[in-house]
Amino acid sequence: MGEDREMEFVDCYASYRPRLIWDPRVSDYLSQAYGQQHFAQISEALTRPSVYSCVRVNTLQTTTKEVIKQLTRYVLQQQNDNQSRMLKQTEFQEKSSEAGDPHCAEKADVTGTKLSRIQVGGTISAESTSEEDEGSESCGICFQHDVLDNVVMVKGKGPCSIDYTTVRGEGGVLKEVVVSRKCAEAVLRGAHVFVPGVLACSGCIEKDELVAVSVAMERSDGEGGWFVGVTRGTTLSSEHAKSQFNDEDRSGWFIGIGRAMMTRATLFREAKGVAVEMVHRAYNLPPFSGVLSGDIFLQNLPSVVATHVLDPQPGERILDMCAAPGGKTTGIATLMGDKGEVIALDRSHSKVLDIVRLAQEMKLTCIQAIKMDALKSVRVESTPDRISQDKPLGEVSNTARLTEAVAIDDIITNSTSEEPNIIEECSKKHLREESAQILAENVGGSKRDEASTISSTRPNSEATPAKKFKDDGAYASRKAARKEARKLKTELKKAAEPETPYRNGFAPQSFDRVLLDAPCSALGLRPRLFAGQETLDGLRQHANYQRRLIDQAVQLVRPNGTLVYSTCTLNPGENEGVVRYVLDTYPFVSLSPQHPQIGGPGLVGGEDVFDGATHRPWLRKGEEQLVQRFDPVGPRDTIGFFVAKFSVAAH
Ligand SMILES: C[S@@+](CC[C@H](N)C(=O)[O-])C[C@H]1O[C@@H](n2cnc3c(N)ncnc32)[C@H](O)[C@@H]1O
Q: Could you tell me where the Polar residues compositional bias lies (predicted)?
């Protein structure tokens, strides 16, 4: 019986073989645009991460050579750490087997002999995993990009075929953890599994035990919608799980093996933390979070190319219309030597704060991040550029203090039940004082009144509703503390926001260069495990939105200035379709050659929309070489991306 199960299990779960699901009409449309075979290759490539991580160097703080040196050391360290994890695991299995678990004995044997036999790129690698060998393999793992000298490429491994027989439990049944799609996509990029990403797991999982990690994928509800069906906390042997999963559906959706960092019970009780530390991954890429902070920025290669294509010069005035989280903004500022003015817009307040944080981390001072709807970025009335001259935007002290206050609030919001004191202390002492101070010191007269309102909500104040606090002034409940914290956070955000400059937008023709890295359907992003949610209607809506954004962008470029338009989608309607729209609508705008030219040509032709009633054209013959398209199937192994560069003549 056990033998049979094992065979079945090895057949079903031997490798990562995901199938990307599309809305059928979108699939037809893209098949027509790219050709059936090419689209099938694109679909396959999208499910994998690139094996290259691309790191942009902050050349104002360090050098490419130094980054290569540091990253090589880091990658080696990562490999050693992985090896230690494997050893630790082997020891754990051995201990379990000594304790008399026959299945663990089998596992220990398998683990001990097979962990180094991971298939790499389809061939069995050498058994040797000695430090020396790992070291020599690492030489050349980090290297300078062949065209862009401010870019370091770090080569990972994949696809790796993983031997899941090491994670069998009693009776040959797989010990496993099922994670959400978003979590799986992060794991494929090098992350561990964090608690919120876990949806289901086997009935009995102990700390330190090896588990297979798979993804709970969307499935059709038969009425044009999609559902996952697995709720957090599901036990895999339960009736609910059996009705949601069947082995055939899940074949190919296993993304690696990890070590459980907590028992099953703890895993579903906790709100945060690492749930499973990945030991083997279908794609082995080093994580970069927190590595060489401020000196490097992990960025997709085409995004770096887009900032180079913009060709920003020191002293110029540049607008980045849809800027958060600020990858391209900071790239632009760095290319300008931090000299000039880079105005970065985003419509989301919290995302604007992300830009500010990134600029501070990279020590860039020429960036002004502003919360603004780019659809309203052209000034309509003859109002002055700045509303408030005495309160310049991005006043560091103000922003830094807001960041601090928001961080305190985040501690409160994210703290676990074991940390009630943190909640109370933070809420009572810091957050309240911080809020009152920010309000009182940093904002104008009308907001001072708000400051006193907040101060007057102190626990001991007479105005305080009795039930919110205990007699000693502490919050009566966790819920009350959180509610208060959220309220304060909103008020703090509003109050610490500087007087909005450019409230009425920017004067027409007031920028040397404009970058519109437009919000899009993001169909080029990798790894992508599901694409069913994107409909033809949705794609058209994105294109319409981009047309409205680019209408604004064209008006903001000075005569003989430059406009760069980019997206991370494969949808020609959002790429070539928008370029056609610009060329046909604005006779003074023309396509410019790009440098560097790393991607391939654009698509000539068009699409029939609204069931053939309207034809939306793309590029005309001769124009295709003036844009660049990054193809996930191409030799550069990048995300799908599109860049067009326009020159705006006097008009
Ligand atoms: C593709 S992302 C930009 C990525 C960014 N350029 C980078 O490289 O880091 C698009 C951004 O546009 C923002 N956005 C969407 N609509 C907007 C609008 N009307 N005005 C300003 N920002 C907008 C979104 O909040 C999102 O952060």
A: 452-463
